[in-house]
Amino acid sequence: MEPSCLYDSLALHQRMSLALVLPLSALLGLTLGLVGGGGAVLGIPLLVYLAGLSPESAIPMNLLIIALASLTGIWLGRRQRSLHRRAVFLIGGMGAIGAPLGASLTHRLTEPILLISMLSLMLLATLSIWKTREEEADLNPETHIQTCQGRRCALIGFGVGFLTGLLGVGGGVLLVPAMTFLARMPFRMASQTSMAITAINASVGFVSHLSTPIDPSFAFIYLMMVLLGMILAQSIRHLLALHTLKIYFTSMMAAAAIVMLLHQWQNTLIP
Question: What sections of the chain are H helices per DSSP?
Fold first, then answer.
């Protein structure tokens, strides 16, 4: 193939990839805003498989964008007063202890076992979401102070942190089901609280990757599209029924599971 034809082919591939990355970036922001998680599950495959970034570059960029988008979502949703501050500190603090312990054991698990564990956990999370009842109209955290007593929320934080470190599943994907099913927290409050914990964890994670360079131009475009989705989510989340949010959460879990299975299948075909 002539060099010019090869260049044109690569340029066309890059434009097609960018055309997919932009709307999917907005979808990532929409997901984070509606269900309080999904940034890692959707963001890393998006940056690596479509944008063509290396995993080493994709991880810090995704952490930075998710941190900024989560902070924006918290600010946009401040009038709803659905943020459970006690849960943020308890769950976030204990999660920071559990995550390194889980990460230290990851190398002892084979890839098939990791995949089966992740898929089982995602299935359990989805089933837990569907078992939650229709929430009360009052989302004042003071009304639901009993939903996050010290021992229960501390155990949730440690357990979710441990599993996040062990399996590499984004914390928000596990936090929302855990807080709704185990702590009996209303779904919308759980998603907003999960967003705050995600902002803290992503910020800490990004700081640990400061030595890794990222492309500022692409990061800016990526951030703008994610924020667009986040703004849309904060505008419509109070209009959506809990049943609709459950369906959306289930769809995102199914999409993530398909990505994992396809990646495993590709690794099987190409050792």
Answer: 3-35, 39-45, 55-76, 85-103, 111-131, 150-167, 171-181, 187-207, 216-236, 242-269
**What is the distance, to the nearest Å, from the Cα of residue 173 to the centroid of all Cα atoms in its chain?**
6
Using CA atoms, how far residue 19 sits from 170, 213, 228, in Å, is: 25, 24, 16
Q: Does the predicted model carry a pTM greater than 0.90?
A: no
Percent of the chain with pLDDT over 70: 76
Looking at residue 144, the DSSP 8-state letter turns out to be: T
How many angstroms from the chain centroid is the CA of residue 192? 13
Residue 48 neighbours by CB under 8 Å, 6+ apart: 54, 55, 58
pLDDT bucket at 153, cuts 50 / 70 / 90: confident
Rounded to 10 deg, the angle between the 3-35 and 242-269 helix axes is 140
Q: How far apart are CA 21 and CA 58, in angstroms?
A: 13
Contact between 55 and 44 (Cβ < 8 Å): yes
Query: For the ranges 40-44, 134-138, 246-250, which has the lowest average pLDDT?
Result: 134-138
Domain definitions of the chain by residue range: 3-269
Residue whose tokens read 């054991």 = 105
Short-list 160, 14, 179, CA closest to 101: 160
